[in-house]
Protein: Malectin domain-containing protein
Amino acid sequence: MLCNDLSYNNFTSQNSSDFSCQIRETNLFASYSTDNVSKEVSCLGNNICSTSSTSLYIDCGGNGVSVGNKDYEGDFVSGGASHFSSTDNRWGFSNTGHFLDDDQHDSYILTSSSQVPINNSELYMNARTSAISLTYYGFCMRNGSYNVTLHFAEIAFTDDTKFSSLGRRVFDIYIQGMLVEKDFDISDRAGGVGKAIVTTYTVNVTTSLEIRLYWAGKGTINVPTRGRYGPLISAISVDPCEGLKTLGVALSDNLEELALTNCDVIKEQNGFLVELAQNLKKIKILDLSLQSYSAR
Structure:
């Protein structure tokens, strides 16, 4: 079946919001995007946010799992070479690319074998992979600063003297369009195959969050079998920085007044004070000199 991937193009249209992100076998994700500030994707123009989220947890390639007090949502849609899908208008993913030199049916979800034990949790037993580009997109995020944590474990190779131990997976990581990791090698960073590596990045979000993993042609492509390469990710967790946590508690508890002592948080998070003022009757900010002011 012929698949067309037109994602991440710069097409123009008088009303691009009429397009969907997936039309039959054609992926149009981000192909009409014109807003580089909020990272809104025009094919999601009809996506109305009834509520705003301040956290996101995805079990990439898995059925969902609880770790501590976090419930990671399942991400078990198989996808394809030109695929976009979303879940409950909260998040979605876009996948691009056929695996080169692979005579078998392309598989974009990997499962750990008994030869590569994962001791950290069920979070690393499955992973989503891609031949070229894999993008996760968080919709309807409340504006502010977030800690974006990416969970990785190499489960396709082995850590012994077999041929499969020679594999090397190398890819780049972008968050909000910015390169945060160049030539990222999971097993090298984790200290071996079957070991978890967790990386965290603090980013500013306006409405939407974009996490993109991109294969730039580096690493092996035929170990242990042909077509075994490209980005791979086990899980994603997104948590608010302290300012957003304060806002979330204030709104959930129906507070009318709030006193803040960490003024650095206010300065670092654009729009945070304005949003608090819109939802609370009174805000009091205390500094070290015990001076204060109120926003009504």
